[in-house]
Amino acid sequence: MLLWVATIFLSYRREDSAGYAGRLCESLERRLGKGEVFRDVNTIHAGEDFVDAIQARLRECRALLVVIGREWLNAADASRHRRLDQEGDYLRQEIVTGLASPNVLVVPVLVEGMTMPPVEELPEAIRALGRRQAVSLRDETWDADVDRLLVAVTGSSAPAVSTRTKSAALFVAVLAIALLAAVFVARRFSGADKVATGDPGRSRSTSTGAAASAIAIPRAAEIVGADALSFHLVYTLLSGGVARGGDTTTLSLRFRFSNDGPYNTFIGADTFRLAVGSSVLTPSTVLGEIVPSHAARESVIRFQVPAETRQAVLTVRIPGATAELPLDLSSTGRASETERPDAGDARPRALLAPLVTTPRPLIAGSDIAYTLTRATIRRFVNALRIIVNIRMTNRGQFPRYFGGSAFRVLVDGQATAPVDGPNEAVASNSDASGDFVFDVPPATRHVILRVIEGSTADVPLDLPPATR
């Protein structure tokens, strides 16, 4: 049965969390449909009373989502007065109206690793916000967190979908079932139930019966897709353990597969190989995982290795890329947690670091201006991802295109185009912002962000080295 979900009102401060608000809007509309999220106060028509317009929009909404980033609480005007303390502040007006509306669910949404501000630091008019249950959105579990947010807002994680979308999903599902059947048949008739290490008589057991001990997980334990179709795929090694018994050891590795792309993805046994000395081992578990679009799944991959093994190299094949992850199989002395699904509330495993935290003007023309509002990096095993948030201001009389053609990152003089970013028209006398994403080699230490719009602006960026 299709579920009708009323419009969601997205409240955010541009200089604080415009990029996250845009990403959240897109994620919600993918699940709920276009037009179900009211995002931008700029859509209020000229001449319309601001307070009346907000109240009218909120009366149509089921929920008000208040996006809270690092600058949300203490953002100030040119006179250094905190904007939340000003009765005319648009964000304050939105929250006041939402809190006063009995039919509107008000949910704080925390981004950038933020926690809820203390109640006593909020203005009296919106202090009730501090007593509302918040939902955190993290980069590394974004889609799962958005699904959790939808459950809080609608009571269901099953969004309404169009007939076209359902047909495409049915086709992908049928294809995936066929792939799984092919894998099963191939394994059934090719003797794949035996260890592929030259010992055809040994059964593929998944446990030695011995208690499993945890192993240390490398600090950089995320692998990302490396082409235009797979940059949205992230494989994360969550935990590992070894159970030693007899002449073999069972190595168990729990992975999370995150798929933020528009299509389902299939993860088969060929995804993983383990090098132990001169031998290359295949998993001792049958793996055939389908990760739906905009979802995450976890699986435990096991290998049978010689009992004395202390060092190994895991090779992970992700569409568009292959990554090698050295593993120390020595016990840490703690019990293994590989059989326990990740709760989703553990400390984020993504390696994130800020590059730019204060806005920097890039190009300031008479008709158009660009500002770099912030930049961060995310370190993967096989890539270094640079995320730059750009604000475009169109002062001209006509709409202007806002997209990746104007932005490049230079690595050793070679220009790299963004793998993701905004693709929209910005109306006259308005602005927009969004995240442009660039992938560069993991060892990169220096890049130049280049903006070309009539003139050229270069911003050198020093990237922090990898830490172990």
Describe this structure in words.
With 468 residues, the chain is α+β, with helices and mostly antiparallel strands. It is built from five helices and 28 strands. The chain is globular and about 80 Å long. The termini are far apart.
Short description, anyone?
This protein is of the alpha+beta class and 468 residues long.
Helix and strand content put the structural class at alpha+beta
Radius of gyration computed on alpha carbons: 25 Å
Overall mean pLDDT: 81
Terminus-to-terminus distance: 50 Å
CATH topology of the largest domain, by name, is Immunoglobulin-like
Report the principal-axis shape.
globular
Mind telling me the CATH class of the largest domain? Mainly Beta
Strand content: 35-45%
Profile the largest sheet: 6 strands, antiparallel
Give me the CATH architecture of the largest domain, please.
Sandwich
Question: Which range best describes the helical content: under 10%, 10-25%, 25-40%, 40-55%, 55-70% or over 70%?
Answer: 10-25%
Secondary structure tally, helices? 5
Low-confidence stretches: 1-5, 158-173, 183-208
Can you tell me the number of structural domains? 3
Number of strands: 28
